[in-house]
Amino acid sequence: MTGRVLVVGGGVIGAATAYFLAARHGVRATVLERDPTYRCASSALSASSIRQQFSTEINIRLSRASLDFYRRIGDELAVEGSRPDIGLTERGYLFLATAAGLDVLRANHAVQRACGAPVSLLEPAALQARLPWLNIDGIAGGSLGEGGEGWFDGYSVLQAFRRTAIALGAVFESADVQQIRSENGRATHVRCADGRRFDGDALLIAAGAWSAPLAAQLGFALPVVARKRDVFVLASPAELPGCPLVIDPSGAWFRPEGRGFIAGCPPRGDDVDDAPLEAIDHGLFEEVLWPALAHRVPAFEALRATGAWAGYYEYNSFDQNGIVGAVPGLAKAFIGCGFSGHGIQQAPAVGCGLAELIALGRYDSLDLAPLSPQRIVERRPLLERNVI
Ligand SMILES: Cc1cc2nc3c(=O)[nH]c(=O)nc-3n(C[C@H](O)[C@H](O)[C@H](O)COP(=O)(O)OP(=O)(O)OC[C@H]3O[C@@H](n4cnc5c(N)ncnc54)[C@H](O)[C@@H]3O)c2cc1C
Questions:
Q1: Which pLDDT score is estimated for 269?
Q2: How many angstroms separate the alpha carbon of residue 35 from the centre of ligand 1?
Q3: Among 21, 48, 357, which Cα is nearest to 166's?
Q4: How far apart are CA 106 and CA 15, in angstroms?
Q5: Which pLDDT score, from 0 to 100, does residue 385 have?
Q6: How far apart, in Å, are the Cα atoms of 58 and each of 149, 195, 226, 371, 374?
Q7: What's the 153 CA to ligand 1 centre distance in angstroms?
Q8: Pairing status of strand 171-174 against strand 29-33
Q9: What is the rounded CA–CA span in Å between residue 249 and residue 295?
Q10: Phi/psi at 228 (nearest 5 deg)?
Q11: What whole-number distance in Å separates Cα of residue 141 and Cα of residue 95?
Q12: Which of 11, 87, 105 is nearest to 49 (CA)?
């Protein structure tokens, strides 16, 4: 593959793929991004945390490979001596389980250990000794990442991929893609809202939550929708030494951020598509999240929500995992989306894999075949138990 690749969507998946195409294969991409300010892009609104505690081998391996990249991102994405700093903070995830969830926690732990993830399974007493500020009422056990999990600045990651891809020859165009055209079983060109046409030798749909209408034009029913998730910014006098990202059995999560914390939980009621991002559910915080946090960490009784934001999960309603690979039935057309809350942590390994598939026609680094769009056609879900 030597021609130009059209990438629709310049979020972290599109930008990472453009970078790996140029850096590893000498292939140039034209990335078509309708909003270069990234106001609604999931990559700019993410909680940007990374874990190894999944239940499927492919997700664990993707996050481990991506973590390796994030640890050396300063070297990988340096441009003219300027090294990106993404503030990677490795403090672990803590998954807490009630008695009803303990078997699943143990089963997941076995898969994680088999993949080399440094995760400890802790009894309540051991948890209490490690984290004295935690209320272990109703908790039967927890799994704690002892390394290689934490959080980072996702917007800096996106900008670093973009900047380095451009330095290596990729072009980012401000362009709203409206139509994708295919002839004789291959995608040939796209047409934008302003009438411009872009031709390419291959095409990647990486338009996040907005990918499905584009894929439909290629005859593929992509099960990806936009599901709003609220994140609350918290000020608290609580001192929580060694605080990891904590996932409570109620579904609430929190982690340190700067001098305070951020937190969230699943939406109340129906998880509807395309809810406006401006409509933050403040009642969710008051009635659901805060009580759950204050129960788990008594020192959180005194916290205050000082802000909030919302972004869209590019939610894969089929099996909540990334959909990565060739569009079924078409030559030189590819998809990378649908990560449902774990896409920014997997972007380096996904971008690397997509670049291999596009440039070489095969995976060389990590085999991403389990994420193939073909599984949707064949109705073979990839079941991941640890979706947050
Ligand atoms: C609140 C929240 C918390 C999250 N927390 C985590 C986390 O802790 N860890 C984690 O790994 N992941 C997390 N995620 C998920 C993660 O942020 C996403 O999986 C990831 O950012 C998806 O990147 P993307 O490039 O596919 O999509 P996006 O970043 O949304 O990029 C897609 C781009 O395509 C553009 N576009 C769309 N349609 C068109 C078109 N027709 N023409 C041109 N351009 C178009 C859009 O403008 C957008 O910029 C979270 C997401 C949210 C919302």
A1: 87
A2: 12
A3: 21
A4: 37
A5: 85
A6: 16, 40, 24, 8, 16
A7: 14
A8: parallel
A9: 12
A10: -70, 140
A11: 9
A12: 87
pLDDT at position 2, please?
Answer: 66
Q: What tokens does 221 get?
A: 């029913």
Q: Give Cα 329 to chain centroid, integer Å.
A: 27
- What would the pLDDT profile of 156-212 be if each residue is shown by its tens digit? 999 999 999 999 999 999 999 999 999 888 998 999 999 999 999 999 999 999 999
- Atom from ligand 1 closest to the CA of residue 14: 25
- Amino acid of residue 248: D
Task: Decide: helix, strand or coil at residue 188.
Answer: strand
Per the listing, tokens 């700067």 go with 258
Sheet containing 333-337: which strands, arranged edge to edge? 171-174, 29-33, 5-8, 202-205, 333-337, 323-326
Residue of 46, 52, 66, 371 to test ligand 1 pocket, by largest number of atoms within 8 Å of CB: 46
Place of tokens 């700019």: 44
Average pLDDT in the chain: 96
Residue 295 tokens, joined: 């129960």
pLDDT band at residue 278, thresholds of 50, 70 and 90?
very high
Read off the tokens for 2.
Answer: 């030597």
Q: What is the DSSP secondary-structure string of 250-276? A: TS-EEEEETTEEEEE-PPSS---BT--
Give the pLDDT band (50/70/90) at residue 70: very high
Residues of the chain with pLDDT > 70, as a percent, come to: 99
Distance CA 248, CA 293 (A): 8
What is the number of residues in the chain?
A: 388
Q: Half-sphere exposure of residue 323, counting CA atoms within 13 Å on the CB side? A: 37
Q: What percent of the chain has pLDDT over 90?
A: 95
Residues 295-304: tens digit of each pLDDT: 999 999 999 9
